[in-house]
Amino acid sequence: MWAVGFEKHGDPGVLKVMEFPDLRPGPGEVIIRVLATSLNRIDTIVRRGYPGIPVKLPHVPGADMVGYIESAGPGTDLGEFRVGDLVLVSNAWGCGSCRFCRVGMEDHCQSWTMPGFHVWGGYGELVRVPVRALVRATRGMTINELAVLPLAYGVSWKALRVANVGPGDWVLVLGDLGGVGTALTILAKALGARVIAVTTRPSLLRTLGVDVVVGYDKEELMRAINENTDGGVDAAIDSIGDTLPMALDAVRPEGTVVTFGVLEKSSTVQIDIRRFYLRHTRLIGIHNASGSYLKEAINFMVSRDVRPFISKSIKDAQSSMS
Ligand SMILES: [Zn+2]
Predict the structure, then answer these.
(1) Delimiting residues of CATH 3.40.50.720 domain(s) in the chain
(2) How far apart are CA 306 and CA 103, in angstroms?
(3) pLDDT tens for residues 63-72?
(4) Model pLDDT for residues 265-299, shown as the tens digit of each residue
(5) What CATH code is assigned to 2-137?
(6) What is the pTM of this model?
(7) What is the dihedral of CA 298, 77, 2, 21, to 10 degrees?
(8) Would you put residue 35 in left (φ > 0), alpha (ψ -120 to 50) or beta?
(9) Residue 320: pLDDT band with limits 50, 70, 90
(10) From the CA of 100, how far away is ligand 1's center (Å)?
(11) 308 φ, ψ (degrees, to nearest 5)
């Protein structure tokens, strides 16, 4: 098999096409023939070297993938799947046996695995994953659209669900213009919420339907919140990290702040605990979505004809479908 990978950490120049022996599935595993993948921020961070979490080299990145099940390991129970099925792979699968995994909360497992990070990912011709990581792909989207769903749309859907975002709510998105920021915006709008986005590049978010766009300036943000909401946003979703104090200030009493994805900046911030508890603020930490959230996100998007935003496609994978 061929794969795009790296033998040492560094800038994009370390990526190269490499030949490897074909992957073989073990018990409980399948091999997926990859049709399309996508580029997420985590892929560039893994390439540069994630501080404190070494990967075994050579490494094949790629958190997202869509493809066909090519083969299954000896004695593997494929459950609802068959060889040849079009599938996505969840961004967090667990050990399969702890108290969280037993009830499908694999993202709460303390031995969770992420494709393209802990194991080889979607930048290869073939990928080996456990059956329990599979999510059925819908025919209601193109291959390229499916390929951007697992990370950005899975975790964004999870963030909006744990914050109970619904019609008429004000949601503050602190995620700039990346895959997660655009996914949060698209999904929040589709849920009937109104969105205030903090970004350095406002034009795209406006085309995605953001109601209010402000820069990374706390005074400007609080002015926008006072002008538009009744005492604060209902939910603030923060995937940046050092913006957490801003998110805590932006929510209404008993509002919800969801935080995740602090990948590059410092993960330490100072917050005013008194303001936090006097306002009955709910602060929820999450990380990668389990397969159940991804399934929910796909069903929601297909039922509402909600399409993911793709900034650039290298090749139309539809042409490679049999
Ligand atoms: Zn587990």
Answers:
(1) 153-285
(2) 29
(3) 999 999 999 9
(4) 678 889 889 988 999 999 999 999 999 999 999 99
(5) 3.90.180.10
(6) 0.95
(7) 160
(8) alpha
(9) very low
(10) 6
(11) -70, 155
Residue 131 Cα to ligand 1 midpoint, Å, equals 14
Q: So what's the pLDDT on residue 29?
A: 98
For residue 105, how far is its CA from the centre of ligand 1 (angstroms)? 8
Q: What is the dihedral of CA 177, 303, 107, 262, to 10 degrees?
A: 10
Q: What is the pLDDT of residues 144-190, one digit of tens each?
A: 999 999 999 999 999 999 999 999 999 999 976 689 999 999 999 99
Per-residue tokens: 275: 């303001």
Q: Is 42 exposed, middle or buried (0-12, 13-18, 19+ CB in 10 A)?
A: buried
- Tell me how far apart the alpha carbons of residues 170 and 165 are, in angstroms, rounded to a whole number: 8
Buried b / exposed e across 88-126, counting CB within 10 Å, b at 16+? bbbbbbbeeebebbeeeebbbbeebbbbbbbbbbbbbbb
* Distance separating alpha carbons of residues 129 and 127, to the nearest angstrom: 6
CA of 317 to the centre of ligand 1 (A): 34
CA of 91 to the centre of ligand 1 (A): 14
Q: What distance in angstroms lies between residue 159's CA and the mean position of ligand 1's atoms?
A: 21
The span from the CA of 144 to the CA of 318, in Å, is: 7
Cβ neighbours of residue 39 closer than 8 Å, sequence gap 6 or more: none
CA 126 – ligand 1 centroid, Å? 25
Q: Which CATH architecture has domain 153-285?
A: 3-Layer(aba) Sandwich (3.40)
pLDDT tens digits for range 19-44: 999 999 999 999 999 999 999 989 99
Residues of the chain with CATH 3.90.180.10: 2-137
> How much distance in Å is there from the Cα of 133 to the middle of ligand 1?
12
Distance from residue 96's CA to the centre of ligand 1 (Å): 5
